[in-house]
UniProtKB/TrEMBL annotation:
Annotated TM spans: 16-35, 41-62, 74-95, 107-126, 146-168, 174-191
UniProt keyword terms in alphabetical order: Cell membrane, Membrane, Transmembrane, Transmembrane helix
InterPro entries (alphabetical): UPF0750_membrane, YitT
Protein name: YitT family protein
KW rRNA-binding (keyword) present: no
Keyword field contains Disulfide bond: no
Localisation per UniProt entry: Cell membrane
Main localization of the protein described in the UniProt heading: membrane
Topology of this chain in the membrane: Multi-pass membrane protein
């Protein structure tokens, strides 16, 4: 009989696969519009725009150093789940151009859809003990080691990222639409990510 207070391995696999797939779709929406986002995904998007390298490859490589921090901070299970989520997202994003094409996508609608899709993707991953790695792990580690608030570390990183984007993206309005998408992502997580409302962990 399944323990109602914990997810089974099959439930974790399904949740991580779902979250990673939705995250990949969200990035496909984002990059089709030439927008960016925050955190490690946003850094990978900017590098992809600046170099022409595929986002999936850049995102996978950028995350590699953070697995050691994740292992030390959260343990082996979290690290393996996060590695799986990052690998699935990266692989699906690399395949996306052959599978998904948009004939028309309004930038405002696309930014909002990105935020909604990505927010639910992250919720699924958090719900099953995983993440998309990167800056979030570093921020929590900085909070534990030096007493720096994780939220402020992430906010500071995103502020620098969006400032740099003003010099890389061809139009400042793309940065503004990107900020809308990031706002929706954070809103979805802020409203829905409540551990005290969950039965399973």
């Amino acid at each position: 009989m399944t323990d109602p207070s914990h997810h089974s391995a099959l439930e974790d696999a399904q949740g991580i696969a779902y979250g990673a797939a939705m995250a990949a779709f969200g990035i496909t929406l984002l990059t089709h519009l030439g927008l960016i986002t925050g955190q490690t995904a946003g850094l990978a998007v900017l590098i992809s725009y600046a170099t022409g390298w595929a986002f999936g490859l850049v995102f996978f490589v950028i995350n590699i150093p953070f697995y050691l921090i994740g292992y030390r901070r959260f343990g082996l299970t979290f690290t393996l789940k996060t590695f799986a989520a990052v690998a699935i997202m990266s692989a699906l994003n690399l395949a996306a151009p052959d599978w998904i094409r948009f004939e028309a996508l309004n930038v405002a609608v696309g930014a909002i859809l990105f935020g909604m899709v990505s927010g639910t993707a992250l919720l699924a991953l958090f719900r099953h003990g995983a993440s998309l790695g990167g800056i979030g792990i570093l921020a929590l580690s900085a909070q534990e080691r030096w007493g720096m608030r994780a939220g402020w570390v992430q906010l500071g990183f995103d502020a620098v990222l969006f400032a740099v984007a003003l010099f890389i993206l061809p139009d400042w309005r793309l940065v503004a639409w990107s900020a809308l998408g990031a706002l929706v992502v954070n809103g979805v997580i802020a409203v829905n990510h409540r551990r005290d409302r969950y039965i399973a962990t």
